[in-house]
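Hallway conversation turned thread

IA: we were arguing at lunch whether anyone had actually written out Pyroglutamyl peptidase end to end. Turns out nobody had. So, for the record, here is the sequence (446 residues) and right after it the structure tokens. Reply here if something looks off.
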Amino acid sequence: MTSTRWKPARVRLLAALIAVCAPLAMTTPAAAAPGTPPSDPAVAEPGASGSTPPDARELGVEEQRLAKATPQEILRRSGFDAAVGEFTRALNGVREYGDAARLGERSGERLWRRAVDRAQGRGPAGGDLSRDDDRPLYWARLAMTKSLRAWAPSFDLPESRRSALIARLERSSRGQTSIGLPAGRHVRRIVVTGFDPFRLDADIRRSNPSGAAALALDGTTILTASGPARIETSVFPVRWADFAQGTVERTLLPHFRSGPRQVDLFTTVSQGRIGRFDVERFNGAWRGGSADNANLSRTESVPIPAGVPTVHPQPQWTLTGLPYGKIVAAGTGPFPVYDNTSVTEIPAGATEPVDRADGPTPGSAARAGGGGDYLSNEIAYRATLLRDALRLRVPGGHLHTPVLEFGPGNTDPATGVITDPDFVRNRLGITEQVREVLRVAAGTLG
């Protein structure tokens, strides 16, 4: 039997947990509900390829960017720097690995909830940065993983276990472990995913409207022609390795399986082209090689992780199940919405890629889906392939948002400021149009 007496280590852990949880609880009402990343693939900047991933004690490329002035300003002007400090102090009071694992997961969940609450107007803003901003969550998460890498606990901590702690915090702070779809026939169930900011070496000020939309929509209910619909969201990293390891399938699988809480509609969302939304008709089984947020490149067929349901042989193409015709015709907001059918393929019997405006031809090999050959296309391919493997008969696919742009006079990353009224207005407008697209799509459910 386990002793019920409090040991000194447990007392220290309790004090540390109170220190990290109390400020966050003040911003989270008890009644609170439980990202291509941007750019046309043709615009995506190439980066270093063939780099060696850092081990757990070295700072990753993303964490190294924290030293720059912009991330620190974003953390300070949102109040998320305090959350990072609280987590670090709590971590330094931990004396057992199991307690560290629990602290990491709970702190990640609270960070996600704090970002969602802030985006949805609950609790203090924590600073003068616009509430709809997705960047505080991104940079705070990296500051926390940086603390985990630097942590020197009083007990032995193999690097494999340190990596597991980082992975646990990553998943929980992205909303991947807290998707809570309701049961019953009275409400429709929608899952939406977004992405982190990316292409930060070109402009470290960047935000990702798909991530901002995920924060604004998580746990909300919309009224549709088919009745009320509950939306649950998560965000994903812009890293090839995480996708190869199954982060998409691991997150979506519980909600795609048959049962009383099975999803009724899903859409992956990312930033795409300037001035337009696109419903991507075709998704391709190909990685095109552009550098990710870790400055790593991959050019290969999309790898499917072991142990997840899939289709054999692996198909070169998957199809959207979203009602693109109705979405395009609905007039969901100020930006036009297109049914994008373009792809790049190597036709059967050929060796060179060609562009097709009207989708792939029989027997062709994928080189780019409608969403390109970056992680936007890949998340759409993985989600719809999992749908097909499970024979899930619900609408689902990928939505590209317009590129989020700064206002005139604030386009130079070397001299510009981190936010401006046009930037905020554009992000809010994109989020509202994503909501309206979901309303139209869910309204077609029988």
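OS: looked through it. Residues 188-443 form a domain with the Aminopeptidase fold (CATH 3.40.630.20).
IA: good, adding that to the notes. The CA atoms of residues 171 and 177 lie 6 Å apart.
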